[in-house]
Amino acid sequence: MSQQPEPQVIGEQETEAIIERMRRGELSDQDKTIIAKVLRSYLYLAQMVQQTGAKLKTVRQFLFGQLSKKKRKRLEGAREHRRG
Questions:
Q1: Considering only CA atoms, which of 7, 12, 11, 1 is closest in space to residue 61?
Q2: Is 29 within 8 Å of 5 (Cβ atoms)?
Q3: Does 40 map to a domain?
Q4: Domain count of the fold of the chain
Q5: Torsion angle in degrees (nearest 10) through CA of 44, 11, 14, 31
Q6: Distance CA 56, CA 81 (A)
Q7: What is the C-alpha to C-alpha distance for residues 70 and 55, in angstroms, rounded to an integer?
Q8: 5 falls within a domain
Q9: What is the DSSP string of 26-77?
Q10: Contacts of 43 (CB under 8 A, 6+ apart)
Q11: pTM (two decimals)
């Protein structure tokens, strides 16, 4: 499996703007760098799931980073509430 890429955080608006620039053939060097990082992350994630059978927790951590203790408590509380 290839080396874990540096995470690339990109919002919906920025993504749509890059797609529009791509359609017009006006990608900047920065756009190309972002696209390369996103594609490498996708490949890494696909390999991780395919080769190791990664669990959802591992995939979530790769995509969104480690949860803080505070967020983890909130999520666990919400799960308990739904079960309740």
A1: 7
A2: no
A3: yes
A4: 1
A5: -20
A6: 21
A7: 22
A8: no
A9: ---HHHHHHHHHHHHHHHHHHHHHHHH---HHHHHHHHH-PPPHHHHHHHHH
A10: 2
A11: 0.59
CB 8 within 8 A of CB 64: no
What span, in angstroms and rounded, lies between the C-alpha atoms of 46 and 81? Answer: 33
State the chain's maximal CA–CA distance in angstroms: 53
pLDDT digits (tens, 9 = 90+) for 18-75: 999 999 999 999 999 999 998 888 888 778 777 777 677 777 777 777 766 776 666 6
Helix (H, G, I), strand (E, B) or coil at 21: helix
- How far apart CA 30 and CA 18 sit, in angstroms, is 10
Which domain does 37 fall in, by range?
12-83
Smallest CA-to-CA distance from 36 within 26, 48, 28, 24 is with: 28
The whole-number pLDDT of residue 78 equals 63
Q: What per-residue confidence (pLDDT) applies to 74?
A: 67
